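Deliverable D5.2: sample structural annotation.
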Amino acid sequence: MPANITINSNTSRYHLNSKLLQRRATWLMRQHQVANHEMSILFVDDQEISWLNNHYRGKTGPTNVLSFPFADDADPCPGIIPIQELGDIIISVETAHKEAIDLKVSLHDRLTWLITHGLLHLLGYDHERSEKEAEEMWALETNLIHQLQSSRSYQMTHLAINVDHVATVRQARGINEPDPVTAAAICELAGAAGIVVHLREDRRHINDRDVRLLRETIKTRMNLEMGANKEIIEIALKLKPDMITLVPEKRQELTTEGGLDVAGQKKKLAKTIAKMNKAGIPVSLFIDPELKQVQAALAIGATYVELHTGRYCDATNEEQREEEYQLIASAAEEAYQMGLRVNAGHGLDYQTTSKIASLDTIEELSIGHAIISRAVFVGLDQAVREMLAIVRNASIVF
């Protein structure tokens, strides 16, 4: 690979996404037409980079990034394809993390900037030679990062379809059609990566028959949304879905109105998670994009968090929507760095999905109402394929 990433064990608490950083580094190399070269990127802590800084530069204390170019006349590596070594970049994750907080950016975005800076050094740029070259290097870095942010999406986000609203239409007439089980099969054939259903205590749409048949027929993955209710917990333990998502549940609400207050009910939720973990069922917690809720989810043993995107979707102007988007992006980044897996959903439609799908830390989006509504006009198969195209286009892997 053109960019070889090594993460020292003493930085493990930061939960770096090596694939993401490698893709970004490879993209940067392509921009400079050195994709047929190789470079090594080593992520260390302050102690290690302080030693290197002192040993090679005669300077005390840590720095954020060091670059060690290979000699200009270095021989090409042997092989059929002529690949040359650019050199090594060493980055202190500890220092980068502090800088990210000060700059109010994500850790991975700060690390990307430092990779960019280090690569330019390997290519011969040096901001210490003159003020003019420092300005040129800064302008080039800024332009590269802007291009990257404008065009990027590095991880293919999955699309899971919530078929609750098919059952809602069925229940309106109290008959057997339309059947959410049939709808789930159509969604899978159209390319959905999973099926989501919410078995409520009052059985207002999905019922016991539905979840039983869906468990037997779903070919991808079944995500059972549920409240931490004793009866529903017992059903889930017997059913053994591929995962469950714990959500808040109120009898009077039309749909889920917000995220779980995990921080306020840790003891109760921890007991449910423990039961599911013992049964081998991963647990996701549906939460608002708030750091305290992410931290609480980690503390009680959740495998996933699903970030509530409702406020983002309901925003009435672009400024408000951007503010909500930044909260989601920040919470997703924090959760990922803590070691949680991250999903998102609620209220997403054909206009709002793309930007959320482009977040590198989000694995899966759960979408229901928008797709079922669209299906009234174009059919379920096409509605799923149209949404899937939006998700995939926002998740192009370089």
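Annotation notes: Confidence is low (pLDDT under 50) at residues 76-82. The radius of gyration is 24 Å.
The annotation will be released with the project's public dataset once the embargo ends.
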